[in-house]
Write a structure and sequence with these properties.
- With 424 residues, the chain is mainly alpha-helical.
- The chain has a single domain, classed as MFS general substrate transporter like domains (Growth Hormone, Chain: A), CATH 1.20.1250.20.
- It is 79% helix and 0% strand.
- α4 packs antiparallel against α5 and α8 runs parallel beside α14.
- It starts with a helix and ends with a helix.
Length: 424
């Protein structure tokens, strides 16, 4: 309870812009929760196979990847709020035909368009959160963003599982009811745009003085390259099986859409606890060690899910896996923002997202081909392998960069001492 009280007290002191950005995250992730549960099934129930589904998903991710570095450059040179508003407006407009026109060319085209503008919003969000908070609050801000995103995902997953049933599809999944649910969810994108308009761009925010697309200005620091490489390996892991969890549950374990939605919601609830203790965990063992440990623990849980014959065992392994693989995310992001200068954070985030998206796109497409042939085991093994590689790289690169976690026996600032006493 002391940890929770300290966590909530810190959140109440956030800057107004941070609170608006967190509200936007809630609204957008409510949409993505619905999308994540239903979109794959919507494509399959239109009559397309898992190979085409993999193509659509990889095209979306590849488009996001191609736009990440230009988005980062724009982020460092222009008003972040305006960029986010334009991107939000275009994302909303691109989502409508995605659910109205069922042809293959339309699904591919608007998945690409949506991926381009989602990339801009994603790149801009991290530097905006970082520049609107103090260094001491950075972990709490990114932890709160993850917590709120997961709360929204819980609701979105539950809605994605329940709403089609309310539309009369308990007997089976139908593309028309899924389309109607997804179209209704587009309203949430418009609401997120309204919240973005309420954000004030902070005066004095750092901007690059270099020419807009000057190649000479794109100097890659060693840390940015290291972060980009670890983002690439983590993306390779994420793309192998994560996008197909709902397909695996419904087709291999024969779960219903409602069951998938409820399991995802339970995982989200458990994740909230993980995000709340993340600042406390990083204080004890450090950000990088927390990130490495989470991946090392998540890998065997993933394999347990792959070999589980029982629905209950697979669901339990999934919930535990989601807890560990995601809980250290805020700590990793906080560490990255601390190591990168503010005037180049947009470019750095773009580089990291590019590596991540390229890897996700390729691994998603390859896994789609494997799953279309009925092979789920290799994607699970590939995911575990890349998690272990990512953990090893993070520890090798940054184990000596991060300061040792604070101890009560060493002199520490008064504010930090107060936080530790409250937590413990």
């Amino acid at each position: 309870m002391d940890i929770l009280k300290e966590y909530m007290r810190t959140i109440r002191g956030f800057h107004r812009n941070v609170k608006l950005l967190l509200l936007r995250s809630f609204i957008i992730c409510l949409y993505t929760g619905i999308y994540g549960i239903l979109f794959n099934l919507y494509i399959l129930n239109l009559g397309y196979g898992a190979d085409f589904l993999g193509l659509v998903l990889s095209a979306h991710v590849l488009a996001s990847s191609a736009m990440s570095i230009p988005a980062g450059i724009l982020c460092d040179r222009f008003d972040k709020k305006k960029l986010m508003v334009v991107a939000g407006m275009c994302s909303t407009l691109a989502a409508v035909p995605l659910y109205v026109i069922p042809s293959a060319w339309s699904l591919l085209l608007f998945s690409i368009v949506g991926g381009i503008f989602v990339s801009i919003s994603s790149v801009v969000l991290t530097p905006m959160l970082a520049e609107n908070c103090t260094k001491e609050d950075t972990v709490h801000v990114f932890s709160a963003n993850s917590s709120i995103s997961w709360i929204a995902s819980i609701l979105g997953c539950a809605m994605g599982g329940i709403v089609p049933g309310m539309l009369g599809t308990f007997a089976g999944v139908k593309a028309d009811s899924l389309r109607l649910t997804l179209l209704s969810a587009v309203v949430l994108l418009a609401m997120g745009l309204v919240v973005t308009l309420m954000i004030e761009e902070r005066k004095g925010a750092p901007k690059s003085r270099c020419a807009l697309f000057s190649l000479k200005s794109l100097k890659l620091s060693p840390d940015v390259l290291k972060f980009a490489l670890t983002s690439l390996t983590f993306g390779a892991a994420s793309g192998m099986i994560v996008p197909y969890f709902n397909v695996y549950f419904t087709q291999s374990l024969h779960m219903s859409v409602l069951d998938v939605g409820l399991i995802s919601a339970v995982a989200g609830v458990i994740m909230i606890g993980g995000f709340i203790i993340t600042p406390y965990l990083t204080l004890k063992i450090g950000k990088i060690r927390a990130a490495c440990a989470s991946k090392l623990i998540a890998a065997p849980l993933l394999m347990l899910m792959a070999f589980a014959q029982s629905v209950l065992l697979a669901a339990g392994a999934y919930v535990a896996y989601m807890f560990f693989i995601n809980m250290a995310g805020p700590a990793t992001t906080s560490f990255q923002m601390e190591q990168i200068r503010r005037e180049e954070q947009g470019f750095a985030v773009g580089m990291m997202m590019t590596g991540n998206y390229i890897a996700v796109s390729l691994s998603t497409y390859v896994s789609g081909l494997l799953i279309a042939g009925g092979n789920y085991l290799l994607p699970f093994i590939g995911t575990c392998t890349f998690y272990l590689i990512t953990a090893a790289l993070l520890y090798y690169y940054f184990k000596d960069v991060e300061q040792r976690p604070l101890r009560l026996s060493t002199p520490i600032p008064r504010a930090a001492y107060t936080a530790i006493v409250d937590l413990e």
